């Protein structure tokens, strides 16, 4: 049986013992609980019966006080006692389960009902009706019949039974407590005995073998490899541990042999590493134990590769040294071209600056011309407005002249009519003879005046018609002048648009040239930075040449095998150095 099973059986035995003791203990506790519950119930029944007895006695005493004094305060207390009795009686009936006690309670209630009907209710009604003396005399005549003994005695019998039940329950409770204590003590003693027995058994079967294995492992750790390990034939975990200790012992024996071989190998490797520290790359490991043959092979291959690498480094260092000079010359040429390019950029920047200034001045002039054309257009518009007003005024004059001609025509007609009237008046005056001479003179004068008015009106009409013709000619001329001004305004607007476009394009060209100038300045700055970087590259090439010389001196210290074949990578690097990218130089 393995150790977990042994421990499981031991734990099962302890658990069963504890379970048995717990069952016995809780059985007694349950009995104590039932006894306590019964005892509490008996005490409650006892208290209810005592309350009934007290209530009926109080009811009787308050009845007698009311009969003697007719004081209603006694009647109030009487009613309270009566109500308390009825309530407690119902509660007690619900609590009782013993038929004998139920019969006693029924008997007490029956006697109570009889007593109330025969005495208390009847006597209180007499006193309320003013027949107190008759009630008192009835009580004196009744003697013991009016007492409540028949009601109280069944209640006392119930209390006596509950007192006996309380005593029985207390005895049962004490017995259960004693039994629980005895069971607890016996169970504890049994548990202690079982635990001690299990400890002894487990100590002999588990602890002692573990102690033995621990001691053997300590001796094995101190270097003793000839120990004998008992218990390896066991089928439990301790047998597995014993077999593991045997494996450790055999491994320790093998380790001693391996340590001797390792020491020999370390001596040979140390000698080889010492030769390497002396820059001797021809050293090889030969006499090593069989278990270290792979290490010797790897060491020899690594030294051989290092020797070939050193030879390659020598060749590459020579190639680098020859290419560094070419790099230096290329950087010198690049520096000169950068300086030349920087000078050209500065000249270009100056020329572009002058062009930009000229374009800006042209843009300013175009703006001024645009403003002048705008002002001319405004003046032409004002002239057009004046011409329009002149045309309107001449049209008014023409209309007024026509109206004057009409008026003169009317005046001419009036003069003609006046002349006819004057002629008729002269004829009539001639007929009148001497009496009409004066009137004839007046008629003659009126006729002469009418003739002159007609002549003057004809002359004015002719002049006005001539003026109308001149006004019409002026209207036509002013109208043509207005049309000419409108055409001039259109041309001026076209010129203004063209000048505005020229000014805007000039401003855009000036802005673009400014951006070009800024870009040229940035290119100039970058060119100067490139020149500085070329100088740094030249300095770095010089430092690299010095480092290459140092590398050659360091590599020449190594003693290598026969010359290794040159590698294609070195030739590839040489080609790259001799043909640098043209974009980088540019």
Automatic annotation (TrEMBL):
One of its GO terms (cellular component) is membrane. Residues 564-586 are annotated as: Disordered. One of its GO terms (biological process) is chemotaxis. It is found in: Membrane. The keyword Transmembrane applies. Residues 316-545 form the Methyl-accepting transducer domain. It comes from the Bacteria. PANTHER family: METHYL-ACCEPTING CHEMOTAXIS PROTEIN 3, PROTEIN ICFG. Belongs to the methyl-accepting chemotaxis (MCP) protein family. This is CHASE3 domain-containing protein. It comes from Sphingomonas sanguinis.
């Amino acid at each position: 049986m393995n150790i977990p099973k042994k421990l499981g059986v031991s734990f099962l035995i302890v658990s069963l013992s504890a379970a048995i003791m717990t069952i016995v203990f809780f059985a007694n506790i349950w009995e104590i609980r039932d006894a306590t519950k019964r005892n509490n119930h008996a005490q409650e029944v006892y208290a209810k019966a005592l309350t009934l007895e007290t209530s009926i006695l109080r009811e009787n005493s308050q009845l007698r006080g009311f009969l003697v004094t007719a004081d209603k305060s006694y009647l109030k207390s009487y009613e309270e006692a009566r109500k308390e009795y009825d309530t407690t009686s119902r509660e007690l009936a619900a609590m009782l389960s013993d038929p004998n006690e139920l019969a006693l309670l029924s008997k007490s209630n029956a006697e109570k009902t009889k007593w109330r009907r025969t005495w208390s209710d009847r006597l209180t009604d007499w006193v309320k009706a003013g027949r107190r003396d008759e009630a008192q005399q009835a009580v004196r005549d009744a003697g013991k019949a009016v007492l409540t003994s028949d009601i109280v005695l069944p209640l006392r019998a119930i209390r006596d039974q509950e007192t006996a039940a309380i005593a029985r329950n207390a005895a049962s409770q004490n017995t259960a407590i004693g039994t629980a204590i005895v069971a607890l003590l016996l169970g504890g003693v049994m548990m202690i005995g079982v635990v001690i027995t299990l400890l002894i058994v487990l100590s002999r079967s588990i602890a002692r073998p573990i102690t033995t294995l621990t001691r053997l492992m300590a001796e094995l750790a101190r270097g003793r490899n000839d120990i004998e390990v008992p218990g390896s034939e066991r089928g439990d975990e301790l047998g597995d541990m014993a077999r593991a200790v045997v494996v450790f012992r055999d491994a320790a024996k093998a380790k001693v042999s391996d340590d001797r071989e390792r020491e020999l190998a370390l001596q040979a490797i140390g000698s080889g590493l010492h030769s390497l520290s002396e820059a001797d790359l021809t050293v090889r490991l030969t006499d090593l134990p069989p278990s270290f043959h792979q290490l010797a092979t790897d060491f020899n291959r690594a030294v051989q590769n290092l020797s070939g690498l050193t030879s390659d480094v020598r060749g590459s260092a020579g190639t680098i040294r020859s290419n560094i000079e070419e790099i230096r010359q290329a950087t010198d040429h690049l520096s000169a071209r950068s300086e030349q390019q920087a000078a050209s950029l500065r000249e270009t920047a100056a020329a572009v600056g002058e062009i930009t200034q000229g374009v800006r001045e042209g843009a300013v002039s175009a703006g001024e011309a645009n403003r002048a054309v705008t002002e001319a257009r405004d003046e032409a518009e004002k002239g057009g407005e004046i011409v329009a007003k002149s045309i309107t005024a001449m049209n008014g004059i023409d209309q007024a002249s026509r109206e004057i001609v009409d008026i003169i025509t009317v005046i001419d007609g009036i003069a003609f009519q006046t002349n006819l009237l004057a002629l008729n008046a002269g004829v009539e005056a001639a007929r009148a003879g001497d009496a009409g001479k004066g009137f004839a003179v007046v008629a003659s004068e009126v006729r002469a005046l009418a003739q002159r008015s007609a002549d003057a009106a004809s002359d004015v009409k002719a002049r006005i018609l001539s003026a109308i013709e001149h006004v019409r000619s002026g209207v036509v001329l002013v109208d043509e002048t207005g049309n000419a001004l409108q055409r001039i305004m259109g041309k001026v607007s076209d010129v203004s648009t063209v000048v505005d476009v020229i000014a805007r394009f000039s401003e855009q060209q000036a802005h673009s040239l400014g951006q070009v100038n800024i870009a040229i300045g940035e290119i100039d700055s970058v060119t100067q930075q490139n020149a500085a970087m070329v100088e740094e590259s030249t300095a770095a090439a010089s430092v690299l040449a010095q480092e290459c010389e140092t590398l050659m001196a360091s590599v020449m210290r190594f003693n290598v095998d026969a010359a290794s074949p040159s590698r294609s990578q070195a030739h590839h690097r040489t080609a790259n150095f001799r043909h640098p990218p043209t974009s980088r130089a540019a």
